[in-house]
Amino acid sequence: MPIQKVTKNEIIAKALNVFSNKGYHNTSMSDLAAEVGLLKGSFYHYFISKEELMVQILESIDYELKSNVYPLAFHKQYPASKRMKLFLKGLSKVVIHKNGGCILGNTILETANLYPSFRHLLTTIMDGIVQSFANIYLELYSQEQSQILAQQTLMELEGAIMFSKLYSNPSIFQDFQKRMIQRVETDS
Amino acid sequence: MPIQKVTKNEIIAKALNVFSNKGYHNTSMSDLAAEVGLLKGSFYHYFISKEELMVQILESIDYELKSNVYPLAFHKQYPASKRMKLFLKGLSKVVIHKNGGCILGNTILETANLYPSFRHLLTTIMDGIVQSFANIYLELYSQEQSQILAQQTLMELEGAIMFSKLYSNPSIFQDFQKRMIQRVETDS
Amino acid sequence: MPIQKVTKNEIIAKALNVFSNKGYHNTSMSDLAAEVGLLKGSFYHYFISKEELMVQILESIDYELKSNVYPLAFHKQYPASKRMKLFLKGLSKVVIHKNGGCILGNTILETANLYPSFRHLLTTIMDGIVQSFANIYLELYSQEQSQILAQQTLMELEGAIMFSKLYSNPSIFQDFQKRMIQRVETDS
Amino acid sequence: MPIQKVTKNEIIAKALNVFSNKGYHNTSMSDLAAEVGLLKGSFYHYFISKEELMVQILESIDYELKSNVYPLAFHKQYPASKRMKLFLKGLSKVVIHKNGGCILGNTILETANLYPSFRHLLTTIMDGIVQSFANIYLELYSQEQSQILAQQTLMELEGAIMFSKLYSNPSIFQDFQKRMIQRVETDS
DNA sequence: TATGAATGAGCGTTCATTCAT
DNA sequence: GATGAATGAACGCTCATTCAT
Fold first, then answer.
1. What is d(CA A8, CA D45) in angstroms, rounded to the nearest whole number?
2. Which chains touch D (3+ CB pairs under 8 A)?
3. Which of A92, A176, C101, D72 could hold C165 in an S-S bridge, CB 3.0 to 4.6 Å?
4. Residue B163 and residue A105: Cα distance in Å, rounded?
5. Domains along chain B?
6. What are φ and ψ of residue C168, in 5° steps?
7. Is the minimum distance from the CB of C49 to strand F below 7 Å?
8. Nearest C-alpha neighbor of B173 from the set B106, B73, B102, B124
9. Burial of D118 (0-12, 13-18, 19+ CB in 10 A)
10. Cα(D26)–Cα(B118) distance, rounded to whole angstroms?
């Protein structure tokens, strides 16, 4: 076998970081290649285009969430507050990158109108997150209320990350998390 | 005397629209010039750079909000719900563009880490909006609670616009507005 | 007015030469720019793409032939042999370039199946040349025979240029010309 | 022992087809590898370069013509017209590919000035074809006249193929064939 | 003020080729 | 013999910007 400097997954992980920090259009293939330690041209052995790379990043996020994060919201034995805490932690790990904000929010605002291939994946992921939140709320609220609360939660989450980024102040997002956990605490 | 084809304000208004729809990095000076009806070279008589143009756009937004929108939230005779309604309407007019979302949110996510000149203006504007919301909430809540609610409101607003854009569904943002108005309704 | 290093027509003339010598695909925009004394990027002020440049080259050939060459074949007072001689000379001047062969033949073989925009122009030009030959033959042959002979003549012309190029021997094409002139000589 | 996925001859046959359709410069090694079912890297076990591949294609054409096609023109018992018919048929089979035209004409126009290694082979082949035509004409014409007619025939053949390609009309080439056969028919 | 030619760097992508495995 | 990762140069083209006119 030939020398393998990197794996596809390593590229996806590193590219995700660069995109998070610089945005889709402001990230060049050179930036990505440099981050990975390849030449620009070599990048195309792994991904046929910049667009396809982003698609695969989003797919890997979708997979990661389905495998490891959504289940946290559906855990049978934990109370809502614990599930909320674990879910937010897991979600943050996959989707939020220091200083760069949330890859989902970033990508939605920058590209949703331009790349249908992105939009479809992004809606799938956002739907999945909302349903997970909704399941947590179901412990305390009606079906309908849970749905609404879940959507609001994700909206506020994206807003909170935006604020954190603008003010370079991570505690804004941490406060948001605490608020969400408290909301589902039943201190009987 | 030479012909003046456009005014600086006209350029700012049109450029704001283009940036809202295409994003900062994905908008070229050619795009802007074409929209305004100037040639690329002529553009530089009005704005020395793309960055400076965006700065002036943000400044004009700041000015517009201070002049015409924040006062709506401080109106002495109107009840909170009416002020909320008027304020949201005024804010949307200045800051939200059809399909393109909110220029503030877009610009924060795309550029806050890259252009300090943008960041300062954006914080000023976001602070102003939060304080306006807070003033509305003050009719019903404590100082501290109003502050928190105001920040949450703006977060959720940005999230709601993001959702509207992703799902191409303006009613998500309209529902958000209704929710905010109801929150401060005191139907005694 | 800004400094003008070159005119569009100069570019067309020089690009025609380069394309004739190197072929369409083997000619890079850098090659063309260098020939003209511009940077690659500057080229795009004159032609929006390589394809469009070739289109305009073909259009200028069509125009040149219509203006100055076809009329030679329709000259009322000259005998067929003189018209043939003048027409071949005029045609060669526009369409054949030393060592590079015939831009029409080259472009047909290399691109006719790839660029519909080229094909349409090429057929127009080839039709015009055939009709001119046919008009010369009409002095001695029937309508129908003239048509056939005209087409054969252009075929042989392209073949003769191909041979000249392959053997680096211009006299092959010159012999062809003599043969064509003799064919319409009426030595009464 | 390692698997041999293809033979050199198979590659040559398939590459000939691709080059015929797309031209030399517009055909990439990836195109060729894909057509053959090999990966790009594997290709270089068979041919050290794109140029060398084309050389071997031309050599194989030369060989094929010498083995199976030229003899048709020298057949002792057949009359000129039958030899012409068989020879044209045999020649077409080796050298002409549907839609793509004649590999010889294509390659001459595109590369004769660029690759001396091609030029030598191409002249050898063209000479061989001319001599075969000449031999057919010898039945009816003088040595000298046969030579001239033979060269003219090949020129017109290449021109006829060019026209067929430009107008996407194979009957132009078929008409040419009929004309050549009739020319040597002696209907006594 | 407006023009548009020119720049030089950079874009995303493809090229022919190499070579350790 | 076959692989496919890697190269480095080049591709066609666009970028933000400059400036003589």
1. 28
2. C
3. C101
4. 9
5. 50-183 (1.10.357.10)
6. 45, 45
7. yes
8. B102
9. buried
10. 47
In Å, what is the separation between the CA of D25 and the C1' of E21? 32
What are the residues facing D97 on neighbouring strands?
Answer: D101
Per-residue model confidence as pLDDT tens digits over D27-37:
999 999 999 99
Residue D98: pLDDT band with limits 50, 70, 90: confident
Mean pLDDT of chain D: 94
- Residue-wise pLDDT for C101-157, tens only, equals 899 999 999 998 899 999 999 999 999 999 999 999 999 999 999 999 999 999 999
CA–C1' C85–F10 (A): 45
Which nucleotides of chain F does any protein CB come within 7 A of?
1-21
The answer to whether residue C113 neighbours chain D at the CB level (below 8 Å) is yes
Nearest residue on chain C to D122, alpha-carbon basis: C166
C15, two tokens: 């690009």
Nearest nt (C1') from A4 Cα: F5
Give the model's pLDDT for residue A2: 57
Q: Within a 10 A sphere around the Cβ of D2, how many other Cβ atoms?
A: 4
Residues 31-50 in D having a C-beta less than 7 A from any atom of strand F are: 38-42, 44-46
- Residue C97 forms beta bridges with which residues? C101
Which residues are within 8 A (CB) of D54 and not within 5 positions of it... i.e. 6 or more apart?
D19, D24, D107, D111, D115, D118
Residues of chain A with pLDDT under 50: 1
| Substitution target from A155, A165, A179, A180 for chain B, most B beta carbons within 10 A | A155
Amino acid A39 CA to nucleotide F2 C1' distance, rounded Å: 25
User: How many Å apart are CA D33 and CA D41, to the nearest integer?
Assistant: 9
CB contact under 8 A, D162 and C108: yes
Q: Mean pLDDT score of chain B, rounded to an integer? A: 94
**Phi-psi label, residue D38: left if phi above 0, alpha if psi -120 to 50, beta otherwise:** beta
**What's the rounded Cα separation, in Å, for the pair D48 and D26?**
19
Q: What are the tens digits of pLDDT across the range A67-120?
A: 999 999 999 899 999 999 999 999 999 999 988 789 999 999 999 889 999 999
Distance CA A18, CA A68 (A): 23
Q: Which residue is nearest to nucleotide F17 (CA to C1')?
A: B49
> Does position D134 have pLDDT exceeding 80, yes or no?
yes
Is some CB atom of chain D closer than 8 A to the CB atom of C99? yes
C97/D contact by beta carbon, under 8 A: no
Which residue type occupies B52?
Answer: E
pLDDT, tens digit, 9 for 90 and up, residues B108-160: 999 988 999 999 999 999 999 999 999 999 999 999 999 999 999 999 999 99
Instruction: Give the global pTM.
Output: 0.92
- For residue B73, the tally of other CB atoms under 10 A from its CB is 26
Cβ contact B72:B133 at 8 Å: no
In terms of phi and psi (left: phi > 0; alpha: psi -120 to 50; beta: otherwise), the region of C144 is alpha
Mean pLDDT computed over D156-177 = 96
pLDDT for the residue numbered C132: 98
